[in-house]
Amino acid sequence: MSAKTDYYDILGISKGASADEIKKAYRKQALEWHPDRHKDEKEAAEKRFKEINEAYQILSNPQKRTAYDQYGAAGAQGFGGGGNPFAQGFGGQSGPFTYTYTTDGDGQNPFANMDFSDPFDIFESFFGGGNPFGRTQAKAIPRYSISIDFMEAAKGVSKEVDIGGKRRKIKIPAGIYEGARINFGDFTLSVNIKSDRLFERQDDDIYVNVGIPFSLAVLGGEIKVPTIDGELKIRIRQGTQSGTTMRLKERGVPHLHGRGKGDEYVRINVLIPEKLNRNQKSIVEEMQVEGL
User: Which domain holds residue 236?
Assistant: First the structure.
């Protein structure tokens, strides 16, 4: 990779990004640029995917990151391992995800025979998948899929499923992602999450729209808003504008690995009445005269 390459720019983060921000940005970019999601431009996607992994390998390592900040990409790549995220060999791991790949023998293109059969393979290491490279020689195990509700994904759930004619009880952890693949040893399970009529999710944050009366927006007061753990009372300030977004810290989805939760963002929509009685109309007209 060229010494002019900006690893921070590749991951879309600032130079002061924390380790958690780097990991989160890597996960987002890796999913977005997985070659199986860009079959029409696979060569370009593979190149971008490789750059993302190389950037993560450098920036996630404090020593390599320091060398990169001081001397650029050449300095970082010369610090214990080189710039190739797969330089550690078949047993290596270049980030928080595992990958399945084999070399093509000439060492020119490490992506030539990479297994992109599942665009969410990168989640497999989260669930104890073991050495991902062993699958090239090991006997293939059955793959199944399951659809679960939004809340089941957020809170975790136990399910009874039919696997090869046998009933099996499985546990899906809280915070599971759309498309994540869980390895249960003798079979793997791809998880699909149904959309929710109320909540939307991005990573571990959730978003919800809440409508409030015009009078409440003007005068202020309290309302109850939905969260994944039930209703929560919040304060509406006087003069709240439509479109105002309020952040509820750690009211989102539990982090799949590690402590804490994402946040909830409440978007306030001010509801304008379609019809007014005579008294209400008179009050609004007075406000109009006063320029309010």
Answer: 200-271
Helix (H, G, I), strand (E, B) or coil at 76: helix
Indicate which CATH number applies to the domain containing 124: 2.60.260.20
CA distances (Å), origin 288, targets 59, 101, 218, 285: 57, 68, 14, 5
Place of tokens 């869980």: 182
Higher-pLDDT residue of 74, 218: 218
What pLDDT, on the 0 to 100 scale, is given for residue 119? 36
Q: What is the DSSP string of 41-101?
A: GHHHHHHHHHHHHHHHHHHTSHHHHHHHHHH-HHHHHTTTT-S-TTTT-TT---SSS----
pLDDT, tens digit (0-9, with 9 covering 90-100), for 13-24: 998 889 888 988
How many structural domains are present in the chain? 3
| Number of neighbours of residue 28 by Cβ within 10 angstroms | 15
Same domain membership, residue 179 and residue 123: yes
- Asked whether residue 107 is assigned to any structural domain, the reply reads no
Q: Is residue 110 part of a domain?
A: no
- This prediction's pTM: 0.52
Average pLDDT of the residues in 172-178? 91
Q: Residue 110: is its pLDDT beyond 60?
A: no
Structure tokens given for 151: 């809340």
Q: What does the pLDDT look like over 129-147, one tens digit per residue?
A: 444 434 444 567 888 889 9
Q: Residue written as tokens 């300095």?
A: 75
Q: Are 261 and 250 in contact (CB under 8 A)?
A: yes
Burial code of 73-85, b = ≥16 C-beta within 10 A, e = fewer? bebbbebebebbb
